[in-house]
């Protein structure tokens, strides 16, 4: 890669970071000027401060291999740096220009400068051949024309061939024809009949002159052979043929058939067709002509982008001894076909892009080139797919790829941006290019813990320096942003003396051996901090639970002996079985099963007279005393805990049998007690306790007085509780102003009764009052359909039994149609249930269910039977079903 190309890439890459200016300047300079020749004042034309040019790093960038121009940073002058040869840069073109860019930094600006290269007359016209031969019959008539070869001039415009001049002679004149700015041709015109006998051969000089100052010229020798006999030349049907052909025409396709005639006869009338060379253009390279038929066919693939038109000179020559020729022109126009897809070129890709890049940040430069012309060469470029990028057009076919949305490396670390360019041809052609844009990480995520709280369980007596837990956090960022350090947030003495954490690995290490009896749990916070800039952190709470180990033996509290390790207990000889001897009291500093104690007599001696409660520690006699029993019974009581391994303690007791209870003396053990002085605080506490007690007693007396203060009417209302049954089968119990509706839920699996307190029942119900003699009166009123909205079934063990079983039991005869069951519920609430089981309809429960889905049933087999009171007039069988009703 050359230095110019490196500079171009570096400069264009900087454009992605700054603004893009659309200013344009045009200058003109002649070719072959000396190095250092002034071209233009960039500082003045761009309105720039000359003092800023050097600090802003003014650079001239060109797409050419040579750097033809350079700028003076001190004066802002654009000057020629290398020799400029227009014919080498723009061969065979009328207009020639070079495009360069002036680039400024801080901020970045780019200015497109177009420099027109002016042609100078540094090339003389020339002919491809040094001489040209004409065979002209002496019988040729005056006015006949003979096309002359065209001279070539590498210069253009005014410096190209502008005229021809023929050397003086008496037979021929020169007719110069102008075909445009770049095309001038000449024909030799016969002015006077030739005479072979006088002059068989004529030599003329054709001079081509350009329009430069001073003019330059080139010459061609023309030899005219005067031919006798054949005096008629072939003639074409047209002097000019025009043909239009598509550029994608197949090879061998005939595009034109020439037709020429000759008035002569015989061989003088046989015509052969051929191409004539025209300057440096050889039509035979692209087309072929059949010499006999005159058909012109395509010889080589045509390309409108290389040559949009062809001018072919054709001649028809007869076969006479002195052949004569006729001439014509064929203009072939090549029609452009949309056969070139746009080409996408990506330069200065700025990758990776930071994930916090702002919208509008330039990522790459994109150029689209289409070799077709017209609408076929116009292309539209866009980004395909849902990506946070878009194309921004700056010039025709020049685009910048910019950020169009937020980037998140954690969601997508790279994007494959697909760019499609489509031209406007018919049918349209398109091409695709994929740009891979990498997204670099920014520290925008704090470390994360899997759980907000971590519970750590550590056995007591674990060795110092043991790793009790390893903290691990996760950071979705990458590289340095994911490297974390761990630290303890708590600086208290308890935490700093108990644990420490490895900042790199997150290992929590114990600094001491824990004792469950001293500390059972403690809590601290751990912070994880990443290495990003700025660093981010998060916390997690760590709860440390100390697990108890069986490291404490039971301690004996009682019995207490003042005279030695052996305790003495006396029992009377007349003690019955189960006589209380002593109670062993012990404690264990451990917890849980490690502190669960059991008592055993480990060394019984003599007869098996005593037993001890395994869990209570009470020592009692197993039987009455006998004369054979010892008077003193030494016992050893073993107290063991339930730990693993089990620890124990022992206490020795001598049980002495005495003749009478008078000899049993209670020994009071003096327990040292710290003397306390009766302070003012004790006095205040006693006064407060006495005051609270008095207030409580007064409140209790007031409450009892209010409860007992009732009128005669209220007592009468309470003396006759009422049961309300409704036509829909539900029932309720009323007492005073309280009413309880009993409803059953259809989806319950237990035989529960739900009691709802409601206002005092209205008169639109059936009231059943229970007298003191366990009899009731029944009053029918208008039905109230608002009592129960739906009926439900409470399922019992005899849910599917029918009323027929009750009838078999003899429960459905005469006045036994109504059965009342008394239930005792919470707080002594009495609930009465009544319904006709054996009505005149005489149907079973299953029929009720089928006829009315709103009916509900309950079995008293599991719920009511144990609660039926014996004072009821009618007893209830456990197999009988009772219809309670629905809600």
UniProtKB/TrEMBL annotation:
First and last residue of the signal peptide: 1-23
Membrane spanning stretches: 683-706
One GO BP annotation of this record: anatomical structure morphogenesis
Keywords from the named record: Calcium, Cell adhesion, Cell membrane, Glycoprotein, Membrane, Repeat, Signal, Transmembrane, Transmembrane helix
Localization per Swiss-Prot or TrEMBL: Cell membrane
Main location: membrane
Domain of life: Eukaryota
CDD domains: Cadherin_repeat
InterPro entries in the record: Cadherin-like_dom, Cadherin-like_sf, Cadherin_C, Cadherin_CS, Cadherin_N, Protocadherin/Cadherin-CA
UniProt GO MF annotations: calcium ion binding
Cadherin domain ranges (all copies): 21-127, 128-236, 237-344, 345-449, 450-556, 571-668
Any Pfam family: Cadherin_2
A GO cellular component entry from the record: plasma membrane
Function: Potential calcium-dependent cell-adhesion protein. May be involved in the establishment and maintenance of specific neuronal connections in the brain.
Protein's recorded name: Cadherin domain-containing protein
């Amino acid at each position: 890669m050359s230095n110019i190309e490196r500079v171009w890439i570096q400069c264009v890459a900087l454009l992605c970071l700054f603004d893009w200016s659309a200013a344009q300047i045009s200058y003109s300079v002649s070719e072959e000027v000396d190095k250092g020749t002034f071209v233009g004042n960039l500082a003045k034309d761009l309105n720039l401060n000359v003092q800023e040019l050097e600090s802003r790093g003014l650079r001239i960038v060109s797409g050419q291999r040579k750097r033809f121009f350079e700028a003076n940073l001190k004066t802002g002058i654009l000057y020629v740096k290398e020799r400029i040869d227009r014919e080498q840069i723009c061969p065979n073109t009328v207009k020639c220009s070079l495009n360069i860019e002036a680039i400024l930094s801080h901020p970045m600006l780019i200015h497109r400068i177009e420099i027109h290269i002016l042609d100078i007359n540094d090339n003389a016209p020339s002919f491809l051949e040094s001489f040209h031969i004409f065979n002209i019959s002496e019988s040729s008539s005056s006015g006949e024309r003979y096309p002359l070869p065209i001279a070539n001039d590498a210069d253009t415009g005014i410096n190209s061939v502008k005229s021809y001049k023929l050397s003086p002679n008496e037979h021929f004149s020169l007719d110069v024809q102008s075909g445009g700015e770049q095309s001038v041709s000449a024909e030799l015109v016969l002015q006077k009949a030739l005479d072979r006998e006088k002059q068989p051969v004529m030599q003329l000089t054709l001079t081509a002159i350009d329009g430069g100052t001073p003019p330059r010229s080139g010459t061609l020798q023309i030899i005219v052979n005067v031919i006798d006999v054949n005096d008629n030349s072939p003639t074409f049907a047209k002097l000019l043929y025009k043909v239009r052909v598509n550029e994608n025409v197949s090879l061998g396709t005939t595009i034109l058939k020439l037709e020429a005639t000759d008035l002569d006869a015989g061989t003088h009338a046989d015509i052969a067709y051929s191409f004539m060379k025209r300057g440096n253009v050889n039509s035979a390279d692209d087309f072929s002509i059949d010499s006999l038929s005159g058909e012109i066919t395509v010889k080589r693939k045509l390309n409108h982008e290389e040559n949009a038109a062809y001018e072919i000179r054709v001649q028809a020559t007869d076969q006479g001894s002195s052949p004569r020729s006729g001439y014509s022109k064929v203009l072939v126009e090549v029609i452009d076909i949309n056969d070139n897809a746009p080409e996408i070129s990506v330069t200065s890709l700025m990758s990776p892009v930071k994930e916090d890049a702002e919208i509008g940040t330039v990522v790459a430069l994109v150029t689209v080139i289409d070799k077709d012309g017209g609408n076929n060469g116009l292309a539209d470029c866009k980004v395909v797919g849902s990506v946070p990028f878009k194309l921004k057009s700056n010039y025709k076919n020049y685009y910048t790829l910019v950020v169009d949305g937020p980037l998140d490396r954690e969601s997508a670390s790279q994007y494959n941006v697909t760019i499609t360019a489509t031209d406007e041809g018919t049918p349209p052609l398109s091409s695709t290019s994929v740009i891979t844009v990498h997204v670099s990480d920014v520290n925008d995520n704090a470390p994360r813990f899997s759980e907000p709280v971590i519970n750590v369980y550590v056995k007591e007596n674990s060795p110092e320096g043991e790793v009790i837990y390893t903290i691990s956090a996760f950071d979705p960022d990458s590289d340095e942003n994911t490297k974390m350090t761990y630290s303890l947030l708590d600086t208290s003495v308890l935490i700093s003396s108990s644990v420490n954490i490895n900042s790199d690995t997150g290992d929590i290490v114990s600094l001491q051996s824990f004792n469950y009896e001293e500390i059972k749990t403690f809590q601290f916070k751990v912070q994880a901090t990443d290495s990003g800039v700025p660093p981010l952190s998060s916390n997690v709470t760590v709860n440390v639970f100390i697990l108890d180990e069986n490291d404490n033996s039971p301690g004996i509290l009682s019995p207490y002996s003042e005279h030695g390790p052996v305790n003495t207990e006396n029992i009377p000889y007349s003690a019955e079985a189960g006589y209380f001897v002593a109670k062993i009291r012990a404690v264990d500093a451990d917890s849980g099963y490690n502190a669960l104690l059991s008592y055993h007599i480990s060394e019984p001696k003599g007869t098996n007279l005593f037993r001890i409660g395994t869990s209570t520690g009470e020592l009692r006699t197993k039987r009455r005393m006998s004369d054979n029993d010892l008077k003193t019974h030494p016992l050893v009581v073993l107290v063991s805990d339930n730990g693993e391994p089990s620890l124990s303690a022992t206490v020795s007791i001598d049980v002495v049998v005495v003749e009478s209870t008078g000899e049993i003396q209670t020994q009071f053990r003096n327990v040292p007690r710290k003397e306390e002085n009766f302070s003012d605080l004790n006095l205040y506490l006693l006064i407060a306790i006495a005051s609270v007690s008095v207030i409580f007693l007064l409140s209790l007396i007031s409450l009892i007085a209010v409860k007992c203060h009732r009128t005669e009417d209220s007592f009468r209302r309470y003396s006759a509780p009422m049961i309300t049954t409704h036509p829909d089968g539900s029932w309720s119990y009323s007492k005073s102003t309280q009413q309880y509706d009993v409803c059953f839920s259809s989806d319950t699996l237990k035989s529960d009764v739900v009691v709802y307190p409601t206002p005092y029942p209205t008169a639109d119900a059936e009231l059943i009052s229970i007298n003191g003699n366990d009899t009731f009166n029944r009053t029918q009123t208008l039905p109230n359909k608002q009592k129960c909205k739906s009926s439900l079934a409470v399922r019992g063990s005899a849910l599917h039994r029918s009323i027929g079983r009750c009838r078999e039991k003899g429960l459905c005869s005469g006045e036994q149609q109504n059965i009342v069951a008394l239930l005792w519920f919470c707080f002594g609430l009495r609930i009465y249930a009544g319904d006709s089981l054996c009505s005149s309809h005489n149907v079973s429960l299953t029929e009720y269910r089928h006829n009315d889905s709103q009916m509900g049933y309950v079995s008293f087999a599991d719920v009511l039977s144990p609660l039926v009171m014996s004072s009821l007039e009618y007893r209830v069988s456990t197999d009988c079903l009772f219809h309670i009703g629905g809600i």
